[in-house]
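Hi P.,

Sorry for the delay on this. The queue was packed all week, but I finally got your sequence through. Input first:
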Amino acid sequence: NNLTGNIPESLSECQNLQALDLSYNNLFGSIPKQIFGLQNLTKLLLLSNDLSGFIPPDIGNCTNLYRLRLNGNRLGGTIPSEIGKLKSLNFIDLSNNHLVGGIPLSISGCENLEFLDLHSNGITGSLPDTLPKSLQFVDVSDNRLTGSLTHSIGSLTDLTKFILAKNQLSGRIPAEILSCSKLQLLNVGDNGLSGEIPKELGQIPALEISLNLSCNQFS
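Then the structure:
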């Protein structure tokens, strides 16, 4: 559609609303915090608009939320730690925004999360050890992540696609990556990773779509 203007706060009066999709419009302004008072809301899709401001911490009140897509806007600020209260959340796409700060450690509370896409933001800090073990898809490429990949990567045993390209990661790829036996795609290109390429990568049977280790400092 071609809807313009702000998202009306009055939508919060639709107390039985289960899905709200305003994607692919020309909406601007901030996301009204009142929206997150909708206790029955399971899907919030606001992608590809011109929304700005912050993601309200009130998002933690939306405890039945299953799918959250805010990608392709101009949202800034940090990812609120309250997102960890969303036990039912399965899918998060916050890519292509202006988010800063770190990935909150509280994300471990999203115990049913399978899809996490944060690419093309300004996110800093290291990749947390507390990523939910349920994750199948992770894309944090084109950010400003630093630090190294820790042994905790081995706990992501359901992971199929892991995209870390275009960051400032350093250190080695840990041997524990062998535990990611379902991994089909690994992209760590354009970082500062070093050391030997772990032989364990050749022992992951599912790794058949793509392996990108380019533009690093492997020996």
